[in-house]
Recover the amino acids of this structure.
């Protein structure tokens, strides 16, 4: 009886929590678009001139402003934008005259694919290195990991990209250059926009491997800073756990190192690491801007760079909206995961 | 009033901190790098030529006695440009951190000490800024206001302040319940005075640690902005812009892009090490 | 299970060797194609859009090779121009048997539809029809399936009209195919953005934005290409283009730096193709009353003070043509006169004569962009240092291009460093904007009001005899050279590096490359 009561209370709590969090997602998305809109209104330069260029006639400029609603007062423009947004319409790009949503659909998968790859790189490098360092505290492996982590956190993404491309592609030829596929590869029909998935759907394993191969360098570049942070966090969390009595007891009792790590330490160390991960995935989008520039990656980062430089604010707003959505969703997911791992956490 | 505990460590623990700091190798390394950087920014220009002077016939020349770090694609002296870039990056870093800490501390203090609706409103506002990918917001701001260094500073500060707001708010919330604040309130101190005398000084430690880390972060973000053309504009010898401009010559003149990049790495490293050290010393519980 | 099998097989094959396409029938062209926003010939007004649509669509008349002064037959076999007294009647006789990629024959109704379409859509290039040729809906008529007649008013130049038809705006679309894809009366604009319906040698197979544009041979085309496929691969970074060219991943590279061009020039595996661009890089000086540049002697001093040869040879490593007059090389009326030779002493003397022996301070506006091969700021810095030698102190102000234009257009700039490309390959595309104040273009922006120059430009535009026209332009260009508000710096070269395996690459001054002539040795 008591258990059932408690369970239903938990469900209600959880439900209320979810509602609140979803509300938060909506709020954040609204907030970022409002902020971007606000920024777009302080532009001293003219988006019409940016789009039409030097040879544009006065009447063309006027027509462009009217067509894109730029001649209306700011609050009207905002109302129009919000009204469209509520109907799922992100407006039209000033530069490409294409619905922003189509552009996002085109470019976003490439960025997610790259970010996920970078995320795995960060996990695969950061966590094991952190564990190794912790188990060898103050011995050479630890020192090496700490130095690498420090350098990883201090190296600009764009420089690492240039350097790796120059060394591993141009000089050594170990890895392919910019782009998602070999130029002569047969690009699979676009289904998901994820090259790795689309090549498999097209029953083209060679191109699949080619797409994976092309992912390696950009993923390492984009994931390096996260890997460094993750290694530090993992090391710290592991050290904390390892110093606790029950682990020391277990180790003293002769449990082998690996068993100890697997059973106790890793699970407890996962919590702080998880917290970092949420932030990392969100932060990858910023890194993607630079990585995509260097690796000619057809993602959202390059799109937003071109859009911002041509003062294409509907496009920039579309990207920030998407970014806000991703951020809020990931945060929510991390929180839920956190709760799953550590059920003691209350939803207050 | 005077008998109430004030902020700041006592002399005894301060000397202990200094000792702990000095025993820490990476802290000393960070400090050394930091001092060298300041010296470079302040005295370095005495040992340079005009960082903007073009000498087209002498472009992309390797390091030599005359050009310590070689010349770039316009025949400018890379060493002189890197040295002048130090002051630029430091200025960007300091101003960004000062600006964002100022805004963040004010927002955090208000939210934490006033509580209620104000707190809610301010923190939701902060949440929005957390949700922005920093570089994209900074790009939008820089694009709107026009790409130059001052706007870069504004743009990076605009994405950096929320951390301070959260930090200070958390600190203020914790302190609000502590006896000395309660006592001050009971003695009839006005809220503003309590904030100023008690909560603010006690929040400064984490703010200082955060600021040290953010210096490196701000310099990286500003360099990234310049790299994609939204920050410092040529011919300004900003490090990120230098890497960006020289990147097409990396195969024939790597020194032109590698030198400013190494400068960025060492600078960021210095501030990160200092941040680590400060946290260890000031806030031993927060150590990783 | 099948998936597992694949993966196993693929593992055995090894990674990174995807080579699904034949290397001799596919050509990969690397470049920064970011400006491509539409493949619609009636809308596109950007460089890459032109490059692509020129190969998807045919025009009534066209230029061949690098010659931009002799019109050659395209879809029209013959054409003639009649002066009716009230205006001009241009009649085109279409050749029979030209087919669209859909298999339909190209007829007069498609030509008329294509013209009407441009007028209705009002895209960024439509002013060529409306303002230059003074076309209106109904101006073009189909007399029979193979005859089109276009009526122009007296004010329009028939020669300019014919010239602008060679531009992608003149591309003829399959009217039935386009109508079938119309959405909400958009004249098929949305669909044609990334599809093609033309009679050109290629069809648009796919366009993965920011990644690649795949053009495949059009089986129905009259002009059969030698290659099966041309892929434009997006490689915005010059360094990436260089590496890809060296490793054979791409066959042509579009945006290399002067240093890279020099290195490839001495590499036997590559060849450098030099072509002229119709763009002029120039300095504009505000001649408004009260401006320091109002005195023609000061403007002359500036022209004497700038070391053009140093800019071209050392900054651009020779990748530009020296020019001082306003009509670029490649067009009728090009005047190669170099009246001003670098002479700081003469510049100082002129400044003294103008009453400013000690010079003055002013603002030099430039964009946060690349000026041809170098950052605009670097070029501006070079000019700044040249001018400083004669006592003119330029303060460089670098702002976004659109902001530069805003100030310049409002006649508010003192000195600007910008470029101009004619809207269509006709000398009038430069002569009128740069000479006629009332055209509200460059002469207006620099507040240079010279009725003689304006009148000469108008006269030359409407002169039907090329020889007489050229003579008029000679007078005009020399007048503007000496009195005008410009210091022309150079005409940038458009240099492309090709693998020696590539044959048939020819590029004219309006950046047209006929892909059907390209071939590749194994």
């Amino acid at each position: 009886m008591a258990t059932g009561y408690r369970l239903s209370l938990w469900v209600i709590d959880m439900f209320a929590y979810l509602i609140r969090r979803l509300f938060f997602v909506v709020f954040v998305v609204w907030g970022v678009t409002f902020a971007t809109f606000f920024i777009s209104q302080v532009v001293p330069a003219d988006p019409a001139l940016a789009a039409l260029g030097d040879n544009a006639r006065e009447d063309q400029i006027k027509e462009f402003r009217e067509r894109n609603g730029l001649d209306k007062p700011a609050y009207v423009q905002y109302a129009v934008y919000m009204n469209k947004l509520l109907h799922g319409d992100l407006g039209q790009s000033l530069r490409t005259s294409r619905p922003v949503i189509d552009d996002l659909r085109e470019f976003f998968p490439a960025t997610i694919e790259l970010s996920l790859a970078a995320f795995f790189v960060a996990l695969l490098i950061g966590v094991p290195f952190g564990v190794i360092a912790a188990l060898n505290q103050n011995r050479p492996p630890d020192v090496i990991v700490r130095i690498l982590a420090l350098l990883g956190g201090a190296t600009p993404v764009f420089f690492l990209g240039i350097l790796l491309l120059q060394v591993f592609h141009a000089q050594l030829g170990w890895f392919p250059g910019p782009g998602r596929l070999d130029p002569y590869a047969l690009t699979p029909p676009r289904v998901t926009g994820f090259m790795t998935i689309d090549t498999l759907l097209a029953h083209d394993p060679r191109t699949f491997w080619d797409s994976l191969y092309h992912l390696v360098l950009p993923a390492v570049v984009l994931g390096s800073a996260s890997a460094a942070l993750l290694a530090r966090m993992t090391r710290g969390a592991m050290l904390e756990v390892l110093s606790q009595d029950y682990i020391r007891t277990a180790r003293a009792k002769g449990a082998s190192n690996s068993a100890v790590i697997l059973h106790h330490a890793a699970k407890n160390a996962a919590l702080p690491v998880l917290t970092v991960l949420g932030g990392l995935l969100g932060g990858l989008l910023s890194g993607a801007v630079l990585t995509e520039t260097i690796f000619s990656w057809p993602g959202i980062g390059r799109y937003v760079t071109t859009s911002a430089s041509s003062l294409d604010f509907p496009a920039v707003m579309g990207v920030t909206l998407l970014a806000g959505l991703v951020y809020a969703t990931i945060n929510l997911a991390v929180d839920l995961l956190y709760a799953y791992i550590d059920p003691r956490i209350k939803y207050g | 009033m005077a008998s109430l505990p004030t902020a700041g460590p006592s002399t005894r623990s301060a000397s202990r901190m200094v000792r702990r700091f000095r025993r820490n190798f990476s802290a000393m390394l960070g400090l050394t790098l930091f001092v060298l950087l300041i010296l470079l920014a302040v005295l370095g220009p005495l040992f340079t030529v005009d960082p903007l002077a073009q000498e087209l016939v002498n472009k992309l020349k390797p390091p030599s006695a005359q050009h310590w770090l070689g010349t770039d694609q316009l025949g400018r002296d890379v060493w002189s440009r890197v040295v002048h870039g130090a002051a630029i990056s430091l200025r960007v870093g300091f101003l960004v951190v000062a600006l964002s800490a100022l805004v963040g501390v004010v927002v955090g203090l208000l939210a934490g000490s006033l509580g209620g609706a104000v707190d809610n409103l301010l923190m939701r506002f902060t949440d929005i800024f957390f949700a922005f990918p920093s570089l994209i917001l900074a790009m939008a701001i820089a694009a709107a206001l026009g790409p130059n260094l001052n706007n870069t500073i504004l743009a990076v500060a605009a994405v950096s302040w929320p951390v301070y707001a959260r930090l200070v708010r958390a600190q203020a919330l914790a302190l609000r319940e502590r006896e000395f604040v309660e006592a001050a309130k009971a003695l009839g101190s006005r809220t503003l005075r309590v904030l100023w005398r008690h909560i603010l000084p006690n929040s400064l430690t984490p703010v200082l640690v955060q600021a040290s880390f953010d210096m490196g972060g701000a310099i990286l973000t500003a360099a990234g902005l310049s790299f994609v053309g939204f920050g410092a504009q040529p011919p300004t010898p900003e490090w990120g812009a230098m890497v960006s401009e020289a990147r097409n010559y990396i195969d024939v003149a790597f020194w032109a892009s590698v030198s400013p990049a190494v400068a960025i790495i060492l600078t960021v490293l210095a501030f990160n090490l200092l941040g680590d050290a400060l946290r260890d010393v000031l806030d031993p519980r927060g150590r990783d | 299970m099948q998936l597992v099998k694949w993966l196993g097989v693929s593992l055995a094959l090894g990674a990174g060797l995807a080579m699904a396409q034949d290397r001799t029938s596919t050509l990969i062209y690397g470049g920064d194609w970011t400006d491509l926003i539409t493949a619609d010939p009636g809308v596109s007004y950007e460089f890459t859009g032109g490059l692509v649509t020129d190969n998807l669509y045919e025009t009534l008349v066209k230029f061949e090779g690098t010659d931009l002064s002799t019109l050659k037959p395209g879809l029209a076999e013959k054409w003639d121009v009649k002066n009716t007294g009230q205006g001009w009647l241009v009649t085109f006789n279409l050749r029979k048997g030209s087919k669209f990629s859909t298999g339909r024959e190209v007829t007069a109704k498609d030509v008329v539809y294509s013209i009407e379409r441009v007028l209705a859509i009002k895209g960024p290039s439509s002013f060529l029809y409306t303002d230059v040729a003074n076309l209106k809906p109904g101006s073009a008529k189909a007399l029979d399936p193979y005859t089109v007649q276009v009526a122009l008013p007296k004010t329009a130049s028939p020669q300019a009209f014919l010239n602008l038809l060679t531009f992608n705006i003149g591309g003829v679309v399959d009217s039935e195919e386009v109508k079938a894809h119309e959405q909400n009366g958009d004249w098929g604009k949305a669909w044609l953005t990334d599809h093609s319906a033309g009679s050109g040698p290629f069809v648009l197979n796919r366009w993965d934005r920011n990644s690649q544009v795949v053009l495949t041979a059009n089986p129905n085309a009259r002009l059969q290409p030698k290659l099966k496929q041309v892929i434009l691969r997006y490689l915005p970074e010059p360094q990436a283009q260089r590496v890809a060219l060296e490793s054979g991943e791409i066959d042509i590279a579009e945006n290399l730096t002067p240093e890279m061009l020099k290195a490839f020039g001495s590499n036997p595996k590559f060849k450098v193709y030099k072509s002229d661009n119709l763009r002029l890089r120039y300095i504009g000086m505000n001649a408004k009353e009260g401006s320091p540049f109002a005195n023609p002697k000061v403007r002359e001093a500036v022209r004497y003070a700038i070391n053009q040869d140093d800019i071209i040879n050392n900054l651009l490593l020779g990748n530009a043509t020296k020019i001082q007059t306003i009509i670029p090389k490649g067009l009728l009326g090009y005047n190669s006169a170099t009246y001003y030779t670098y002479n700081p002493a003469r510049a100082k003397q002129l400044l003294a004569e103008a009453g400013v022996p000690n010079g003055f301070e002013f603002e030099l506006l430039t964009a946060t962009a690349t000026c041809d091969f170098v950052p605009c700021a670097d070029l501006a810095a070079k000019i700044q240092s040249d001018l400083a030698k004669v006592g003119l102190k330029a303060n460089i102000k670098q702002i976004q291009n659109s902001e530069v234009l805003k100030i310049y257009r409002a006649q508010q700039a003192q000195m600007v460093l910008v470029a101009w490309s004619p809207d269509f390959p006709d000398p009038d595309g430069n002569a009128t904007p740069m000479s006629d104040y009332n055209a509200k273009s460059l002469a207006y922006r620099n507040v240079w009001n010279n009725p003689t120059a304006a009148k000469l430009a108008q006269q030359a535009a409407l002169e039907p005899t090329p020889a007489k026209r050229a003579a008029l332009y000679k007078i005009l260009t020399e007048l503007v050279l000496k009195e005008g508000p410009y210091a022309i710096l150079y005409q940038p070269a458009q240099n492309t590096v090709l693998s020696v395996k590539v044959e048939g690459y020819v590029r004219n001054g309006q950046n047209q490359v006929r892909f059907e002539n390209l071939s590749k040795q194994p």
In short: The CA atoms of residues 309 and 390 of chain C lie 17 Å apart. The longest strand of chain C covers residues 486-499. Chain C has a mean pLDDT of 91. The interface with chain B takes residues 237-239, 242, 257, 259-260, 263, 310, 314-315, 368, 374-375, 377-378, 381-382, 385, 398-400, 403 of chain C (CB under 8 Å).
